[in-house]
Amino acid sequence: DHLANRRFVSGQFIRKPDQLDYLQEPDIFHDVFGHVPMLTDPDFAAYMEAYGKGGQRAQSLGMLKNLARLYWYTVEFGLMKEADGLRIYGAGIVSSATESVFSLEDASPNRLGFDLERVMKTLYRIDDFQQVYFVIDSIEKLKEVTLQDFGPIYERLKGAEELPIEAVLPSDRVFTRGTQAYAAKGGRFAA
Ligand SMILES: [Fe+2]
Question: By the number of CB atoms within 10 A of the CB, which of 114, 136, 174, 191 ranks highest?
Fold first, then answer.
């Protein structure tokens, strides 16, 4: 409801020094440093509004889980293609110094072209660095895709299989195919 009405809500607490790289709950640093600058982009703000409105509909249709994946892989962990390489726009990446480097430079994660329906089928984890990032061509295109009617997509998603995080499909646009070494080692909590 907040997003649908162009309001953005921030956490009120701030992380402790040992949580500088990552914490699961959004604090004021994540929300204000990570999210707020993106809201000054008119296309991105329109995307967030459309997302909020879509959320209300998804909830009534029982499709919130699928829509949440869209938010996760764009607003939180999205990358964007620019002429001279990939850039970060996801707030979850921006508010982590180490994932900012990892998301762009590490050999471990897959970096795949953004596809709305594909993303809405893809599982995600909230407790570690991502092992897949989806790359958009522009914020304007991201907005356009969100303004379409999700009704037919939801119909297809109802019978569709969920995709594991590490999946790479023949239809994927592959920017970099990751080694998945980070996940194989057990992630950040491994020695
Ligand atoms: Fe966030």
Answer: 114
